[in-house]
Amino acid sequence: MREYEAIYHPFDGPEMSQEREARSERAAHSITEPDPETADKSLQWTPELTLMLAVLEDAIACYRMTLKRPRQNPEILARQAEFWIRLDDWESPFSFNNICDALGLDSTATRERILSSMPS
Known about the structure:
By secondary structure, this protein is mainly α. It is built from six helices and no strands.
């Protein structure tokens, strides 16, 4: 990439190039992913984690049929949510397993708790 920097920034001297590299390195490290080595295990809420939490909350509401304004047939939504919750998928970024993992939840225990919480 360095060989093409002159094309992207033709008026920058070597000082500007080094500053830009240092800035991009700081930015790469500032995107907060929990560090497993630190004692602080709290989540650092990013927009992605907030979206993942919203997806999980919506799936639980669909499964339990407690949506305030159902978008379609509640029984269909409940079946689709149950399928998504039961699916053991690690490939999709927004799969139940990956969302639980990103939120610091045990996917097996969370799955069991959700599926056992269905009101009678």
